[in-house]
């Protein structure tokens, strides 16, 4: 009998070790991990620079409350925002927390307080987290079921549909929350022209544009943040997952004029900006700024796309960078495919009802990608 709530559908695998793109379970079985712990371990397991930063910080102090200055928080904030200035040269400021859901909660609170408005728009099949505010932002009824009344004045419209958005976007709207690639919803990329039109509408009506970069950020799509490839300037954006390479950490970044609505006492987190988390995040940012990682993302993206062509069970391939969705022709086969892949030593994810999702470490090598493709081709052909 388990002593845990059964809120997760757990596989009978107890992963105990990890190195690079591989993990090993308690039985000694090795798996090539194309999940990165659900898009978290972007730099691979046991990355030496992140590990060294953690060990150094662990020998000093682990936790200091946000009652005092934190040079480490300032350092990470500067690294995250140094290339993100608005057309008016307005800088972005950072707020640190422990997860993507917390980052989105902070963005929701700030958007309502800063605008004095309460209506918030997000998109069908979106996913923003499972806390009450983040769950209410999520446009999936299966996530809402059984939890009673949600946070009020949430409106969901179809993704990539400008007319549907125009019909509900008005001067009572506080914010639009947007994923540039809907991860949990099926790896659905946003159309560039649509995103730019959304940004223009928001600016025209004084609506804050909030880009959820929880899964797409930290190099996953080939740039540090996905919005850099869309030619837009979010008012707020949120990151987590890959920010700590496995250490729990999240952040909300917002334009500096919003600081008047987020003064002392307005929001907080006991563990937000924890010393260990900031040490890991700082190391991650430094590694991603070196440039080699992004070159590898583009090379491996093309290798995966080339290797997945012409497979009989594949209906479509979507995504950007190393966020790849493989839509299967038969939705009933998704679970079977995941099982077959696992039995051959490869871990993958699902997205929606018929999409196989690949989120390999951004450091995955050409040889490892070749090995992964051999297994994928054997199962999907």
TrEMBL record:
It catalyses: N(2)-acetyl-L-ornithine + 2-oxoglutarate = N-acetyl-L-glutamate 5-semialdehyde + L-glutamate. Signal peptide: none annotated. Binds 1 pyridoxal phosphate per subunit. GO terms for biological process: L-arginine biosynthetic process. Gene3D superfamilies: Aspartate Aminotransferase, domain 1, Type I PLP-dependent aspartate aminotransferase-like (Major domain). Pathway: Amino-acid biosynthesis; L-arginine biosynthesis; N(2)-acetyl-L-ornithine from L-glutamate: step 4/4. Its cofactor is pyridoxal 5'-phosphate. One of its GO terms (molecular function) is pyridoxal phosphate binding. Pyridoxal 5'-phosphate binds at residues 100-101, 127, 212-215, 270. Pfam families: Aminotran_3. Its EC number is 2.6.1.11. InterPro entries: AcOrn/SuccOrn_fam (IPR004636), Aminotrans_3 (IPR005814), Aminotrans_3_PPA_site (IPR049704), Class-III_PLP-dep_AT (IPR050103), PyrdxlP-dep_Trfase (IPR015424), PyrdxlP-dep_Trfase_major (IPR015421), PyrdxlP-dep_Trfase_small (IPR015422). The modification N6-(pyridoxal phosphate)lysine is found at residue 241. It is found in: Cytoplasm. Keywords: Amino-acid biosynthesis, Aminotransferase, Arginine biosynthesis, Cytoplasm, Pyridoxal phosphate, Transferase. GO terms for cellular component: cytoplasm. PANTHER family: ACETYLORNITHINE AMINOTRANSFERASE, MITOCHONDRIAL, AMINOTRANSFERASE CLASS III. Homodimer. May also have succinyldiaminopimelate aminotransferase activity, thus carrying out the corresponding step in lysine biosynthesis. Belongs to the class-III pyridoxal-phosphate-dependent aminotransferase family. ArgD subfamily. This is Acetylornithine aminotransferase. It comes from Enterococcus casseliflavus (Enterococcus flavescens). The gene is argD.
